[in-house]
């Protein structure tokens, strides 16, 4: 007895611990008895799919050590109370919860509680896998699809148009996947794919360029510069990025996405959007440079540039040729050479060299003509005179032909008369 | 040989007929491809030829038709220089005093017209279209070698070259073609047209009209009445 008496507290401890730990699976099993049984659920509720939980969900869930009432309030017996209470992920994930509530997805000022995306919408409710798991909804390969559940405007209640009335938030999944950053054979490591959260952040959507990006173009350039270092260094030295322009333009200067777009950043070097044409760069530059108002604001002389479609270079590029000359051929892309204010002879030599890359025999006279024609400038000069001469020639030709035809008929008349 | 077969007399030699065929083909091809190139550069036409071919390909098509035209003109020069008929025809189509009289008489002096192998209108057509085509070929070559051209000529001159070979050239070509087609098919007394462009031969009726037409007989058994020019 004495041995038993000595061992009793120890045995009781073992039994107690065993019972305590055994309760966890037992409780979960009690829940799953009904919630993993579709037939039984169908008999108990009108929404069996909503309450169905796969019996093996814990095998793959990161929460496999938490039992049901770790997240749900204890429902007691059946029937359960009408409302069990909201899941409180933030009880454990405090930082993520705070970020979420401060960001556009969780802030009640930006989105109603009913339509707001909740934790489970991105992470799943029960089957919560690690983000490194390729089956996870937040795995880099699945992230775009998860975000476009709402951000792609589809015929569903919870699409971004219904929630925010902002069409520009419509980002089709296919658009993202067509972009170079999502599908790039050079990126062998999935973790380096540039998906939504790499730019917009995760919970608060403010880590990178999601927050205040409109007012802080530096953030965007710096972010792109993490990988595109040389381009960003060149870009930061050019006029588009200079303080002069930014201060004149309400602290908003051109930045990477103004030319490259945000989501569909194409693999094609010259294709800046999904249009077929290879001459998009010219069109992109002319969006601003064709405007006399904008030119006048930023340049020394208010002079809107005509589209180079009037030249062979323009026609060739708009016509779909991949070998062509556009704005970047002389001005560069990110470094943006400017010829304004430079010595004329130096500029001339520079332009001859630029032209010479495609036209090896170009000489001084080749580049003596004005490069950019302001709107209406051509019509006031030689071309206008040429046009009048040719029109006069054509009118004369037509007149002579008409006279000749009249003569033919007059001869016919005389012949018949005689 | 049926005696009912209408007699047809050779007016143009085969080389001339073939040259005319190639000329037709190349001019039509050049007009079409030229219009396509113009449409790419101008939104006025409301038509985008790049739906079918790129600018470069349209340009290549235009260049190859241009080469065909250039070769035809070269052949025509050689034909004039080194063949009897070509030389003779060229001498006949050269402007002379009779043409001046005819021009002064506005083409109503029948006695002058009847003695010639080519009428005033035919001569005008030949020389105007000939000069026009040669100018188009030259301006086309200058545009093709634009780097060399622009190195040596002024911008103004290049604009004239560009204008002549471009839309205005196309318009002139269309006007001349319409005039030429009128002369062949619609002109009073010629309607519904002659088939001389088809095989180089003319009917008896046309033969009588062209007093000086070459009278080679198509059927050797037929003595014919033609008068070799």
Count of alpha/pi helices of chain A? 21
CATH topology of chain B: Fumarate Reductase Cytochrome B subunit
Succession of helices and strands of chain A: HHHHHHHHHHHHHHHHHHHHH
CATH class of chain B: Mainly Alpha
Cα gyration radius of chain A (Å) = 35 Å
- The poorly predicted ranges of chain A are 17-26, 269-278
Span of the ends, CA to CA of chain B: 27 Å
List the helices and strands of chain B in order.
EHHHHHHHHHHEH
Number of helices of chain B: 11
What topology, given as strand order, has the largest sheet of chain B? 1-2
Structural class of chain B: mainly alpha
Mean pLDDT over all positions of chain B? 79
Summarize the structure.
The complex is a heterodimer of chains A (about 425) and B (about 230). Chain A is mainly alpha-helical and about 425 residues long.
Attribute tags:
heterodimer; A: about 425 residues; mainly alpha; about 50% helix; about 0% strand; elongated; B: about 230 residues; Fumarate Reductase Cytochrome B subunit; two-stranded antiparallel ribbon; 11 helices; 2 strands; globular; disordered C terminus
């Amino acid at each position: 007895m004495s041995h038993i008496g000595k061992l009793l507290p120890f045995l009781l401890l073992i039994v107690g611990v065993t019972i305590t730990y055994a309760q966890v699976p037992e409780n979960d099993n009690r829940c799953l008895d009904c919630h993993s049984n579709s037939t039984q659920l169908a008999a108990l509720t009108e929404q069996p799919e909503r309450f169905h939980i796969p019996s093996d969900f814990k095998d793959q869930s990161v929460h496999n050590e938490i039992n049901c009432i770790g997240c749900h309030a204890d429902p007691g017996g059946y029937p359960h109370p009408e409302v069990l209470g909201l899941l409180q992920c933030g009880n454990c994930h405090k930082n993520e919860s705070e970020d979420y509530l401060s960001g556009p997805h969780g802030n009640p000022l930006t989105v109603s509680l009913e339509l707001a995306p909740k934790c489970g919408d991105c992470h799943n409710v029960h089957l919560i896998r690690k983000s490194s798991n390729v089956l996870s909804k937040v795995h880099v390969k699945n992230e775009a699809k998860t975000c476009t559940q709402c951000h792609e405007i589809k015929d569903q209640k919870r699409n971004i148009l219904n929630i925010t009335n902002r069409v520009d938030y419509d980002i089709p999944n296919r658009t993202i996947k067509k972009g170079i950053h999502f599908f790039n054979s050079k990126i062998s490591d999935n973790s380096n794919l540039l998906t939504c959260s790499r730019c917009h952040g995760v919970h608060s959507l403010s880590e990178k360029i999601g927050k205040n990006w409109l007012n802080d173009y530096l953030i965007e350039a710096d972010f792109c510069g993490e990988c595109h270092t040389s381009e960003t260094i060149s870009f930061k030295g050019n006029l588009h990025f200079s303080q002069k322009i930014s201060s004149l333009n309400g602290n908003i200067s051109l930045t990477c996405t103004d030319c490259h777009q945000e989501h569909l950043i194409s693999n094609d070097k010259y294709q800046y959007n999904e249009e077929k044409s290879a001459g998009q760069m010219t069109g992109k530059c002319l969006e601003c440079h064709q405007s006399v108002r904008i030119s006048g604001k930023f340049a020394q002389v208010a002079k809107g540039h005509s589209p180079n479609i009037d030249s062979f270079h323009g026609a060739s590029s708009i016509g779909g040729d991949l070998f062509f000359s556009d704005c970047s051929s002389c001005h560069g892309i990110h470094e943006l050479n400017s010829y304004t204010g430079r010595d004329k002879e130096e500029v001339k030599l520079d332009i001859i060299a630029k032209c010479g890359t495609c036209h090896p025999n170009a000489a001084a006279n080749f580049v003596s003509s004005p490069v950019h024609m302001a709107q209406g400038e051509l019509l006031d000069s030689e071309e206008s005179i040429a046009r009048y001469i040719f029109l006069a020639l054509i009118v004369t030709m037509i007149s002579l032909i008409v006279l000749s035809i009249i003569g033919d008929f007059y001869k016919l008349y005389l012949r018949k008369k005689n | 040989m049926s005696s009912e077969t209408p007699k047809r007399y050779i007016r143009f030699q085969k080389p001339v007929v073939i040259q005319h065929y190639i000329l037709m083909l190349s001019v039509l091809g050049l007009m079409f491809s030229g219009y396509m190139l113009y449409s790419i550069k101008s939104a006025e036409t409301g038509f985008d030829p790049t739906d079918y071919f790129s600018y470069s390909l349209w340009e290549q098509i235009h260049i190859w038709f241009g080469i065909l035209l250039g070769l035809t003109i070269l052949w025509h020069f050689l034909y004039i220089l080194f063949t009897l008929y070509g030389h003779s025809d060229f001498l006949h189509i050269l402007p002379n005093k009779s043409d001046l009289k005819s021009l002064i008489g506005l083409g109503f002096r029948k006695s002058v017209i009847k003695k010639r192998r080519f009428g005033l209108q035919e001569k005008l057509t030949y020389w105007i279209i000939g000069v026009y085509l040669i100018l188009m070929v030259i301006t086309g070559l200058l545009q093709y070698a634009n780097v060399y051209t622009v190195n040596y000529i002024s911008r103004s001159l290049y604009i004239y070259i560009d204008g002549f070979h471009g839309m205005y050239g196309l318009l002139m070509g269309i006007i001349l073609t319409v005039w030429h087609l009128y002369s062949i098919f619609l002109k009073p007394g010629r309607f519904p047209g002659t088939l001389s462009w088809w095989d180089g031969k003319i009917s008896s009726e046309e033969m009588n009209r062209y007093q000086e037409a070459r009278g080679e007989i198509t059927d050797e058994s037929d003595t014919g009445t033609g008068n070799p020019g």
